Amino acid sequence: MTLDRYAPHLRATLALGLPLVGSHLARMAIGVADTVMVGWYGVEELAALVIATSFFHILFFLGMGFGIGVMGLIATAIARQDETEVRRAARMALWLSIMHAVVVMPIMWNSEPILLAIGQEPIVASLAQDYLRIAGFGMLPVLCGLTLNSYLAAMERTQVVLWITVAGLPVNILLNWVLIFGHFGAPELGVRGAAIASVSVQTLQLFLLVGYAAWLPAARKFQLFRRFWRPDWADMRKVFALGWPIGLTMVAEGGLFVGSNVMMGWIGTRELAAHGIALQLGAITFMLHLGMSNAATVRVGQAKGRNDTQGMHDAAVTVTAISVIVAMLAVALFVTLPRTLVGLYLDASNPETPALLEIGANLMFYAALFQLTDALQVIGLGLLRGVQDTRVPMIIAAISYWLVGMPVAYGLAFILGVGPAGLWLGLVAGLTVAAVLLMRRFWRGHARGDWTAEPAAV
Known about the structure:
transmembrane
C-alpha cells in the first residue's frame, strides 16, 4: 500500500465530494436558519418546527430514493457511453419524484390528527400542521432538485450545484427575518413564515437547476428535457426497483430519529426543543459524510461501468478514510464545546434558555458517541448504491434501526428510567449495527469483484 496508489483517488474524490459536501451543508444551513430564528421566536414554535420537519422528512425520505438511486445508474451509463440510458433513467426519476410529491401532499395537509395520535401536545401539533400545510408545496421542488443534483453529480458537475444551493441561504435568512417576525410591514407569521421562506427558496433553486441542466453543453447530448412527457416504462421500472428500497432505507433510518423526537416529546417540550438542537448539530456533521457518500456512489458506479475491481477497491478505501478523519474531528468538537454550540441556537434573554442549554449540552456527549458509526453506515450505503445494491441494505437498515435502535432507546429511556440520554444511546446502538453490517456486505462481496448483486437478483 503506497500513498502514490491512492493519491489520484484522493484528488478525484475531493474534487467530486467537496462541492457535494458544500451543497449539503448549505442546504442544511437553510434548516439551521429556520431552527435558530424560530428558536428566537418561541419555545413552543421551536418544538413544533422540530416535529413538523421530522414529519416532512419521513415523507421526503420515502420519495428521495428515486433521485439518489439514479446517481449510480447514470454514472455507470456514462462510463459505458450509453447516452440513451442516461436520459431515460434521469427522466423517469423525475417522473417518480413528481408522482410522490403529489401523493403525500394530503398527508401533510391533515397532519394534526396524526401528531395528536402519537402523543404530541395540542399546541405543538396545531403549529406543526400550520407549518406543514405550506411546507408540503416544497416537496416537489426538493425531490426534483435532488434528482437533478444526482444527474449533474454523475457527470462530475458538482460546483454549480454548490453555488445554486449556497445562493438560496441568504434569500432564506432574509425571508425568515421578514416573515417570521413581521419586519418591513409584513405580517408576523411565526412558523408559517419559516415555511413560506423555505418553499420560496426550494422553488428558486429548482428553476436554476433546470436552467443549468438544459444549458450545460456537456449534457446537451443527453437531451433530458426533450419530449419530457414521453414515458419509458422499462427504465421507470428499473429506477423504481432501485429507488423504493433506498426510500425505505432512508425511512428506517430517519424513522429512528423521528421516533426519538416523538418519544422526547413524551418527556417534555423543553427536552424536545433541546433534543432538536443537538440532533441538528449532529446532522451538520452528517452532511459532510453524506457528500462523501454521494462521491462514493459516483466513483464506484464509474468503476463498475469500466469493470474495474481494483479501482473500485481503492476508491472505496479513500472515501472511507476521509470520512473517518472527519468523524474524529467532530467528536473532538462536540466533547470540548457543547455549551457554545448549543448556545448558538438560543436567545440569551429568554428565561427558558438556561434549562435548554443544560439539557442540550448534556446530549452533545451522546451526539459525539455516534459520529464514527453514523459516518461508516452512510458511506457503506453510498458504496453499495454505486453497484446498484439496494434491497439487502434496506433489510439491514430495518433490522438495525427498528429491531435494535428503537427498542434499546425506548427500553433505556422509559423502562429503565434513563430519560433523554437513553434515547440517544438507542440511536448509537442502531447506527453501530448498521455500520458493521453494511460495510461487511460491501467489503466481503463487491470490493472483491462480485458484480452479481443487481437489484433484481438481491
